[in-house]
Amino acid sequence: MTDDTPILDIDRLSISFFTRLREIPAVMDFSAKIMPGEALGLVGESGCGKSTVALGVMQDLGVNGRIVGGSIKFKGRDLCTMGAEELRDVRGKEIAMIYQEPMASLNPAMKIGRQLMEVPMIHEGIGEKEAYARALEVVTDVKLPDPERILKSYPHQLSGGQQQRIVIAMALMSKPALLILDEPTTALDVTVEAAVVQLVKDLGKKYGTSMLFISHNLGLVLETCDRICVMYSGEAVERGSIEDVFDKMRHPYTQALFRSIPLPGADKNARPLVAIPGNFPLPHERPQGCNFGPRCNYFEAGRCDQGTIAMNLVEGDDRHQTRCLRFEEIDWNAKIDAGETKEKGEIGEVVLKMDNLKKYYEVSANALFGGGHTKVVKANETLSFEARESETLAIVGESGCGKSTFAKVLMGLETATDGKILLDNREIQGTAINDRDTGTVADIQMVFQNPFDTLNPSMTVGRQIIRALEIFGIGKSDAERKARMLELLDLVKLPRAFAERMPRQLSGGQKQRVGIARAFAGGARIVVADEPVSALDVSVQAAVTDLLMEIQRKEKTTLLFISHDLSIVRYLSDRVMVMYLGHVVEIGTTDQVFSPPYHPYTEALLSAVPIADTKVEKKHIVLEGDIPSAMNPPPGCPFQTRCRWKSKVEGGLCEREVPSLRTMADGHQIKCHLPEDELRGMEPVITIAAE
């Protein structure tokens, strides 16, 4: 094979799934090339066919899936015409795939070392000793601590980030020529994601592996790939180099995607995000002509809705193509019509105050059989803050930092161990939800992360909202409650006809809107939004985020926005609270937290956020090690085991004492031992290159 032969050459691929009723085309006329050592990012919304393409390459489409046109060539050989024996040799050895959920790829009953050794022993027939040596080398390559101990561990003894590294190690055991990564970091924390992405890039270079990287995160694709292919409703709509597509996009869908994500400079009041209008078409209801036509700002009737639209070459660029008839007529540099600039809500009086809140759990050392010593998990340590009417306070931090525990205590699902929670100067920290009066329950509501789990599948949308109104004691009669339910559907911009629909008939974004309607049913004063958009597509995120902001302006709600996505936090929050291992390590206005001086953890968090903008330059900081367990926190500063600044503090103070919150400016506090001049001399993590 020569260097100018693609590792993977997909040509006019079409894949359909067959049901008893009809053939459902999932991928149509899809072409892509990956050259040796190249990384191609495949992006698009859920249901656009990204994973179907990957499964087509792996020849793993199940009973109902079938390739109905085109070819997939790997190193010049057509995978579609290979027999089962040949495919078995190629899969795992020459083409490896890493899935979204690491535990689905690991055998829970087998030690890690044995699982890794199996790969070369089966594919290459090498001996046990050699396989062990290779497993040790690969586990060291994926930067896991104490590789020999890891090889003796079972999957459940590792954290999510460690499990994902093992899956990557397993994929690399046979030094494959092509690595397919299907959303490999979705379930991981942003700092772990940054480390895994860096790892994949480094290992790609070391092993000379080509990559197909499937993601809905444009920032991640920018950081990991050389080229990008944008998919919409089963078709590739634009492809080219990262620079061409990011800076000189030539398809209306690509442009709409970028307008719906919060890049630096977006502002919820002055420069709101623009959501893509309408909904994604179902596979059997695709429109005539251009699939994106019904949602496109540049649609021309009689032209864009006729016949099949082919890919067109963009002159002067490197293999840059677009599936748009009008790409040469559109003014791509025209200023975005931002729509109405929103009035900033007037921040009012303090509604909620937390004073030295603590939440500890006692865990038996042998919880299964009782007995043994009890250990204390310090989930929240002395949390203190205030939240005002109409204010958005973002709470950020990695899994296990105590964000959700604090939300449970606030909601009354748990009671506090110590400290106070004051709602309108009334103490509520010791009152469980069953003992709270209806008014207090209605005042503090929650919008959950996963809209699929929060609705009753056997109850209509309208009935679920009416049920909430009954619980909150709103409305004197059924007719009044029904009228209020319809007003709530108007509030979340859902058609009134949806009242009769069942949850299964709704998309993820629509379900989340029903969840929001239910939260606001009792006129909530405080809404805790726990990662409310992380399970949604980028284009839907913009609409749901905007909706929350609009309702907040109207209802003067206090929004506590729990998230690990700092791009969205920067866009919508007034103040930010950064948590690490149960402690508040930094709190301040959004501008204060996003510019130096930073707490060393905030600095690392900002560096880890992938930003989909080629003009943004970031300082590269990868945190070493995993978050310590809340059951066994380190002595002194909770962050000292991962801090790159620790050597600047004299006398081992970081290992001995928990720092106190230090005021840097009005309203800006940092919990750190670093000397004042070191903190004030910090450089910005994110800078935007001049035009």
Distance between the termini: 43 Å
CATH architecture tag of the domain at 391-415 and 430-573: 3-Layer(aba) Sandwich
Mean pLDDT over all positions: 88
CATH superfamily of the domain at 391-415 and 430-573: P-loop containing nucleotide triphosphate hydrolases
Overall shape? globular
How would you classify the helix and strand content by structural class?
alpha/beta
In the CATH scheme, the class of the domain at 391-415 and 430-573 would be Alpha Beta
Per DSSP E runs of 2 or more residues, the count of β-strands stands at: 26
> Can you tell me the residue ranges where pLDDT is under 50 for at least 5 consecutive residues?
none
The residue fraction in helices comes out at 25-40%
Percentage of residues in strands? 15-25%
How many helices? The count is 21
Q: Which fold name is given in CATH as the topology of the domain at 391-415 and 430-573? A: Rossmann fold
Radius of gyration: 26 Å
How would a crystallographer describe the biggest sheet?
8 strands, mixed
**Strands in their spatial order, largest beta sheet:** 6-7-8-3-9-10-12-11
Highlighted features:
21 helices; eight-stranded mixed sheet; Rossmann fold; 26 strands; 691 residues
Overview of the molecule:
The chain has 691 residues and is an alpha/beta fold. Among the domains are: 391-415 and 430-573, Rossmann fold; 592-688, no CATH class. The protein has 21 helices and 26 strands. The chain has an eight-stranded mixed sheet, sandwiched between helices. Strands 18-19-20-15-21-22-25-24 form an eight-stranded mixed sheet, with helices on both faces. A four-stranded antiparallel sheet has the order 2-1-4-5, covered by helices on one side. Strand 21 (575-580) and strand 22 (583-589) form a beta hairpin. Helix 3 (112-124) crosses helix 4 (128-141) and helix 13 (461-471) crosses helix 14. It is globular.
